[in-house]
């Protein structure tokens, strides 16, 4: 029996040591915060509220075109250069290409190019490349007095809702026998 008593005493001494270790782990504190510091979203509410209105000054640069060359160019020259630009754009920036591929450039006068665009959002994308294109074109044809005029082309932007009935009617125009088939079978094209 004395052996059992000793075992109980040993067990009692181990439990307080484990409790002390648990308390020591709970007491430890960190000196630095666990989250990352210094990462900014780029937007500050305080700076937005205390924002001062800045006056932007723009300088108008006047380029004298009297001494620059004013050679003749044709509409064919314009169309060829536009197609080359579209091919380059298709490889380089497909998003801008899709936005501007429906634009039409027409020679309106001896020194005037009319740009017909379908929508304002497409024109914004065109503005990104227009400076590069027109500078290149002016140097290519050696005519630095070219003026660019923008005009919205409503006909170019046709958004038509195509229903099954309209598709079927187009097929009837190509093959009139389909009308007889529709009369016989009573297709539901709603």
What's the arrangement of secondary structure elements?
Elements: H1 2-27, H2 45-49, H3 75-92, H4 94-100, E1 104-109, E2 112-117, H5 120-141, E3 147-152, H6 164-174, H7 177-185
Parallel strand pairs: 2-3
Antiparallel strand pairs: 1-2
Helix pairs in contact: 3-4
What's a quick, concise take on this entry?
The protein is mainly alpha-helical. It has helices spanning 2-27, 45-49, 75-92, 94-100, 120-141, 164-174, 177-185; strands at residues 104-109, 112-117, 147-152.
Provide an overview of this structure:
By secondary structure, this protein is mainly alpha-helical. It is 52% helix and 9% strand. It contains seven helices and three strands; from the N terminus they run ααααββαβαα. A hairpin with a 2-residue loop joins strand 1 (104-109) and strand 2 (112-117). Helix 3 (75-92) runs antiparallel to helix 4. The longest helix has 26 residues, at 2-27. The chain is flat, with a radius of gyration of 38 Å.
Total count of helical runs of at least 4 residues: 7
Strand content: 5-15%
Distance between the termini: 97 Å
What gross morphology would you assign? Answer: flat
Q: How are the strands of the largest sheet arranged?
A: 1-2-3
Rg, rounded, reads: 38 Å
Provide the residue-averaged pLDDT: 78
Helicity, as a percent range: 40-55%
Spans where pLDDT lies below 50 across 5 or more residues: 7-14
Along the chain, the helix and strand elements come as HHHHEEHEHH
The main β sheet shows up as: 3 strands, mixed
Give the total of beta strands.
3
Look at the helices and sheets and give the structural class. mainly alpha
């Amino acid at each position: 029996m004395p052996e059992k008593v000793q075992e109980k005493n040993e067990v009692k001494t181990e439990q307080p040591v484990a409790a002390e270790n648990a308390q020591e782990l709970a007491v430890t504190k960190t000196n630095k915060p666990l989250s990352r510091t210094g990462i900014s979203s780029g937007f500050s509410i305080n700076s937005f509220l205390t924002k001062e209105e800045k006056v932007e000054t723009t300088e108008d640069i006047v380029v004298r075109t009297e001494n620059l060359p004013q050679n003749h160019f044709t509409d064919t020259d314009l169309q060829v250069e536009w197609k080359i630009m579209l091919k380059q754009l298709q490889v380089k920036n497909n998003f801008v290409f899709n936005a501007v591929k429906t634009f039409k450039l027409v020679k309106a006068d001896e020194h005037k190019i009319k740009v017909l665009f379908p929508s304002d959002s497409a024109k914004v994308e065109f503005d990104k490349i227009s400076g590069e294109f027109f500078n290149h074109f002016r140097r290519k044809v050696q005519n630095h007095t070219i003026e660019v005029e923008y005009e919205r082309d409503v006909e170019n932007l046709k958004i038509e809702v195509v229903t099954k009935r309209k598709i079927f009617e187009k097929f009837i125009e190509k093959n009139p026998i389909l009308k007889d088939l529709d009369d016989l079978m009573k297709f539901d094209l709603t």
